[in-house]
Every structure is written in structure tokens, then in C-alpha cells.
Amino acid sequence: MSDTAKKRIEELTERINRHDYEYHVLDNPTISDIEYDRLVQELVELERKYPEHAREDSPTRRIGGEVLEGFAKIEHTVPMLSLANAFDADELRAFDQRLKKLADDFSYVVEPKIDGLAASLLYEEGEFVRAATRGNGTVGEDVTHNVRTIKSVPLKLREPVTIEVRGEIFMPKAAFLSLNETRKRQDKELFKNPRNAAAGSIRQLDSRIAAQRSLDMFVYGLAERDEEAQIPQSEVLKRLQELGFKVNDRIMRARDIDEAIRLCEKFESLRTDLPYDIDGVVVKVDERPLYKTIGYTAKSPRWAIAYKFQAEETMTRIENIRLQVGRTGQVTPVAHLAPVEIAGSTVARATLHNEEYIKGKDIRIGDFVTIRKAGDIIPEVVAVIEEKRSGDEVRFRMQSTCPECATPLQKSDTEAETFCPNPECPSKRVQGFIHFASRDAMDIEGLGVRIIEHFHNEGFIRSIPDIYRLHRHKEELVGLARFGKKSVEKLLANIEASKERSLEKLLFGLGIRHVGKKTAESLAKRFPSIEQLRGADYDDILAVTDVGEKIAASIKAYFEDENNLKMLEELGSLGVNMHHKDDSGTGGHLEGLTFVLTGSLSAMSRQEAQKRIKARGGDVTSSVSKNTDYVCVGENPGSKLEKARSLGVTIIDEKRLLDLLGDTEE
Hints:
CATH class of the largest domain: Alpha Beta
Shape: globular
Strand content: 15-25%
Oligomer: single chain
Radius of gyration: 28 Å
Number of domains: 6
Distance between the termini: 57 Å
Helix content: 25-40%
Largest sheet: 7 strands, antiparallel
């Protein structure tokens, strides 16, 4: 009987996987839902009785059931880079002109940009083994247990190949509407849009939840290094289809940029008719062997660009204008709007930046205005609809005191922004705590906006060092609403782990005015301890890459404040690391040197050169300044070469760069 069961399990597995492919990939089902369900139920029963015969690619594994404690981190073998954006035809033509300076005889592939969640899938000898989110592009989260439930993702390829593919996980519009209808009946919070629903579903620890969400996935490319690229992108897509992946059937080739622009405009007119959300179009060079020659900027490939659709606009009314205090003390007017649906979500607020912005657009309380989402993300007021004014509208006047602590506000003679100077302003403090715990700063998972506000209101967090004293209140925290023992223990463990973050994370988290993430990294490399930075003079700080006069003055002022010094002393006594950790690799003989790369290199790609420089302690920036030490020039250099000459920066060729690196081997 066991052999008979094994044979039937094999037959059912093959049949159901074929029907899944026909339904979810080809959109061409060949059996009824009732017949399909009967086959699945039979397989479930047989696998329950004879689990030793269940296959790795069994469709029953898509039902879910695995529950994780948390998400493991996965380092991408090939980084998942973001794309540069174009917002009109002129910017697409400028992109084309830049490419023509780097390569000859190329065409384009034009692909709808699915509004979902980027992911990378790994197959070994044809078997699905792992899936990871994009994360920060270098490190993502292991979501294998949830991606396995997506029926358009093959669990076994048609050929036993080892391959890593990239694609976009999304929720179809119909599935999104159905999900929100269900949540509405259950009195649960509704998802804002299909993208948020897809992201929330794929990050569920219980795979049974993801399995119920009707997620889908289009695959759009290979995770290959440039030197491995052998065939055009259009051929890659055909190959992926042959292996069993779902590839968007609306992807088209364009002979030149004019044809690509026409296709972009066509997609824009069709976007509302598609069964899934798209927020733009990706235009890629089809000839993948050229990718190494074309190269990369600091953040994105030069051989592709995302054409972003014009932001959807709609009309609403400004019901009030209220002030909001940020972490630096900046006081920002915020328009409270009559709620309106735009770009897939409900918008009820929009920033008005500062008093001058309001005066420039003559925005008044009671005005009807046109709003849009800048980049389909941030709501902004485009214009006032003056013909709809009744005469009852009220002009906005900036108040003279902080709305949170009543401290007199200050305004710089050279800046449009208004600030609350009170370091004890409650709103300012809370925003500072939120920033300190954020991903780009100390990255304390679980310590989000609502939790921080709750802890502040309860009196547990009144200063940044208090975050590292929360363990003293463990029993009290367990008693708070929505907090159980396990969640508290996990949060405290995450707080403890954050003590080991490198200095640049701490510097960014401290919220020193004008010091962003990139500047914090440059400062930490130049001054590897907090004491060295504190003791540095103005000119030494000014000499650091990315640091100008305003930033240098802000840093000096920060370390001259006794309250800040006391806080840093407290953090140190609580075990928070105050030193830079060089995790970039071995070496370090290029420490303190800044490079700019321009033109095409022959011995390695510019991305590889950047990696080698950083591995030896150096820094690579995208623009030439007086603080640049070397500009490495390859074939067909751009305007950076002339800039280097005008500033007297040392210009080197690739051979000299290899000498500075110390070897030609990795």
C-alpha cells in the first residue's frame, strides 16, 4: 500500500503544481475549482498518512503553518540597488544621452513598475530554498516561509538549475478589496493600499496568515554580477518563463528612447485599468553585457531608470492649520484637511513647511486646495483654488510661543524655519527619542513611535539614557496595555543589543543639527571615538568629507553644551559603545582618504573599485570637492575630471588606483 500511496502522491503533486501554474501564471485554468479542491484534499490526506512520501515541492506546503520567533537576516550576494528616477520625457532623454557617452548600439526593455515589495529568491538544483526582502539593499530579511505560500512562485523549476532571481511581491487590487472587506467586518484596522497590505502580509511570523492573503509575484531579472551577464534582458525574461516563473506579459522592447517614452506614456494611461497597482515604468538597457561598461553611481545602476508617473491630484479643504514640533525643535505648520482618497490611501494632513511657504502660496484656513502625493508618498499642497473662496477664509499667523511648552519661539535671520529653543520641550524630546531608536540610528526593533509615546506618557522615558534603564521597570512594563512578558523581554534584548552599534549610528541618533546619516559615517571614520570628535577643533571637523561650515559649527556647539556632555557620559556608563567599528574588511591603510571615480574601468567595475577602497578604510563619494584626495579616471570620463582640474585635486589612472589598493587580488 505504501508504494501505491507514493505513486499517487507523486501523481497528485505533479498535477496540482501544473494546475497552479496554469491558473496563477498563465491565467488559463483547465479544471474547475471544485475539482481542484478535491485533488488537494486527497493529497493532504495521503501525506498525513504517509508523510515520508511528501515531496519538497508539494503544493500542500503553500497552506502555511510555520510560525517563526523573528526574521533572520540575509546578506545579498549581489546588492539589490535602488533606481534613479525620471519624472518627464526630457529626463528620460537626458538619461539616454548619458548612456550614449558610455556605450554604443543599445536598445531598451520597458517594464511596468509594480507597486509592491522587492524580493530575491534562491533555487539550488531547481529546488526553492530561500527568499529575502530587499531590506537596505545589502541585508534583507528571510521570508522563505511566507513566499512559499505564493502560488505563482514555483517550488520546483522545470530544470535542475541553481539560480537567484529578483522580483516584486504584490497584492492584486481585487484581493486587496476583499481583504479590507473582511477586516472591516472583523472591526480591524484597514490597510491603506495594496502595497502596504503586501508588505504587512509578507512580514507575518505565522505563514498561515500570509497564505490567506492571495499574494502574487512577478519576476523581472537575475541576481548576477555584471561579468556574468551573457544574454540580453529580453532573453533573460524568456528564460525565466521557460523555467516556470511568472513574468509580466506587458514588458516590451523599445528600439530607442523615443519608442520607450511612447510606451511609458501608454502605461500611464492604462494604470487604472490594470489588475495590480503600478507607480511607474522601469526603462532598462536590453544588452546586459554592457552593464559592466556602463557602471553605477553611488546608489543606483546607470543602465536603468524608473519613470515615475505624474502625481495624482485632487481637491480638498483646509479645515485648520496647526503647529508641530520636531526633534530639532523646528516648528512646522501642518494643514489639517477634509479627508480625501489619493493614490490609494486617505490623506488628512499635509506639511506646509514654514510661514514663508504659506505666505508665498497665500494659503488660508478654509481654502479649497489641490493636493498630491510627491513621489506618490508625501502629501503636499499644490495650489489654492481662489475662485472657490467665500470671503470667510482666515489668514494664518505664526504664534510667538511653542504650542507644546509655551517657550518663546526663535527664528534665524538666514533661515525660514522657526524653532523652539527649550531642550526640555516634551514634543521635541519625544521626537528625539523616536529618531534615536530608528533604523538608520540605533535600530532598536520594537521601540516604535507609539511605544515611545506611551512610555514617555507613563514616565519611563524622559531622556535618551532612560531607554537603557527600561530593564529596571520590567515588571511594570509587563503590566502595560498590549505588552506581555515575551514582548517586553524581546524589546529589552533589542535595546541591550543596540549598545554595540558603531559610533556613526550613535552620532546620527543623537540628532545633532545638520548631521545626517552620511555625514555621521564620515565623522566616525575621521574621529573613531566620541572623545576624539569632542576634542577636535573647528578646522579639523571642517576638513571632513561632507562637512561644511554650518555643520562644523553645529557639531562644535553640540559638544560645548554641558547637558549634552552629561548625557553622553550617562550613555557611556550604561554600556553604550562610543567607538567606530570598522566592519568593512581588512586593511585600513586608506583611512581618511576620499576618492571619486569617473569613467569606465577595465580591471574591475566601479562598484567593485568602490568596495575595495572601502575595504581598506577609504571613502568614495559621488562628487568632487576641495576635500577629495583622489579622482580616478577611466575611459570616457565625465565632468568630474574638469572639476578635479579646476580644484587642483590629484588625478590618477586605474593602474595608480591598483597600486594604492596594495594588490590586484581580492
